[in-house]
Design brief:
about 160 residues; alpha+beta; 2 helices
């Protein structure tokens, strides 16, 4: 059964069973930014967030000269940049948000979802927020779910 979302003041969210406040802070910064892009533009390119050792969270992105860059290339570059900053000790946690298609356990039909890959030195998780864009209507969101994942940013050797 997927976890239930609990609301905190200022529309921040906590997902029971998801690693602590660090991930929640990253998610609460990145998810609204992605939702805004999705609702204003009907889509979004991959974007990241990083948490400094003092707990400050900032959104990060990468630039491409291409008018329509390949999202996979942007994800690879975001991860490489965040990996470098993690190795330099400049960040203690990071997240990368991108668009995916997932099949939910209760359906056999693929659906669009926002994936936010969250990572720190100790833990890693993916969160998925299914959504449906409807012409002339508000975007409809499903339930946010979290799963474990392997680390790709906080590694000693990025090829591991």
């Amino acid at each position: 059964m997927p976890p239930i979302i609990q609301e905190r003041p200022a529309k921040s969210i906590i997902i029971p069973g998801m690693p602590g406040p660090t991930f929640h802070d990253l998610l609460n910064e990145l998810l609204p930014a992605i939702q805004q892009m999705l609702e204003e533009h009907g889509g979004f390119y991959p974007i990241g967030a990083e948490m400094a050792p003092d707990g400050k969270v900032e959104l990060v992105g990468v630039y491409s000269d291409d008018e329509f860059p390949d999202p996979n290339d942007l994800i690879v570059e975001l991860i490489a940049n965040l990996h470098e900053r993690a190795n330099e000790g400049l960040i203690m946690a990071a997240a990368v948000g991108y668009d995916v298609a997932i099949t939910l356990p209760e359906t056999d039909t693929p659906t669009d979802a926002i994936c936010i890959a969250l990572e720190s030195m100790d833990e890693a998780a993916n969160t998925y927020l299914p959504y449906t864009l409807r012409e002339g209507q508000e975007t409809e969101y499903g339930k946010l779910v979290a799963t474990d994942r392997d680390r790709t940013i906080f590694l000693t050797d990025p090829s591991s």
